[in-house]
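Handout, section B. The chain below has 94 residues.
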Amino acid sequence: MSRGALVLAVVVWGLALARPAPAPAPCEAGPLCGEPLDLNATPAVWLETLPGIGPARAGAIAAARPFAHVGELERVPGLGPATVRRLRDRVEVR
């Protein structure tokens, strides 16, 4: 085994034994903090954390921006009154 290969193997082995990452800092923003998501500013990937919202609907919401109020979600294809009612407490428009 060459010296370079040996060094690489030791580095990879060391990384495998590294301690786990520290616990995340207290929540400041984002979908896991329990705060409503701003429909006009939240990245589409975070919108996917909402119930009933997958990648396609999250993209459609992002494409329909800006929103003046939460009720305007009904103009997004695939989102009806029932879905908007379900999301009302989880989203906002700032």
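Note. The mean pLDDT is 82. Compare this with the example in section A.
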